[in-house]
Write a structure and sequence with these properties.
The protein has 148 residues and is of the alpha+beta class. It is 10% helix and 22% strand. The chain has one helix spanning 63-77, and strands at residues 23-28, 34-40, 45-51, 92-97, 111-116. Strands 1-2-3 form a three-stranded antiparallel sheet, with helices on one face. Strands 4-5 form a two-stranded antiparallel sheet.
């Protein structure tokens, strides 16, 4: 998640964090009526809500622009903490497509192995790397099974 590109965000969110690791999430209500941010470390949970008690909207009132900076500021005032231990006993190794992040299919050109929950085996395989039979002249029609 540290390197996720966030579409439709005009804020460089990577600059909001401090040197410490914080698990965090933001949210914005419909109509920009309020915004929130929640962050956690093993020792602390910080929640920030910003908005108007009357419920009127304010353009630009978003979790990333209004609540997150305040939350990170609060975390910077707290003592430095450790990070969560990885619960390897509760995780399994899963092969994923390096390009899509989905569970790897047999046609994925590059894969990586990650630790994930057992429930992750129920997800679908990568929908982007597939074998598609086309006609011999390579037009957009699919090849019939008889001609394969």
């Amino acid at each position: 998640m540290l390197e996720v590109n966030r579409p439709e965000e005009d804020t460089n969110w990577k600059n909001l964090g401090s040197a410490r690791k914080i698990g965090w999430k933001t949210g914005t209500s419909y109509g920009f009526r309020d915004a929130w941010a929640v962050g956690t470390t093993p020792e602390y949970v910080v929640g920030v809500w910003v908005g108007n008690a009357g419920g009127e909207g304010r353009p630009g009132l978003t979790g990333i622009n209004a609540a997150a900076p305040l939350m990170f500021n609060l975390f910077s005032s707290l003592p430095k903490t450790s990070w969560f231990n990885v619960p390897y006993d509760a995780l399994i190794k899963v092969e994923v497509c390096k390009h899509s992040g989905f569970k790897a299919g047999r046609f994925c050109p590059e894969t990586d192995t990650i630790f994930s929950s057992e429930n992750s085996t129920r997800t679908s395989v990568c929908p982007y790397h597939q074998l598609i039979h086309v006609t011999s002249d390579k037009n957009s029609e699919l090849q019939t099974p008889v001609k394969m």
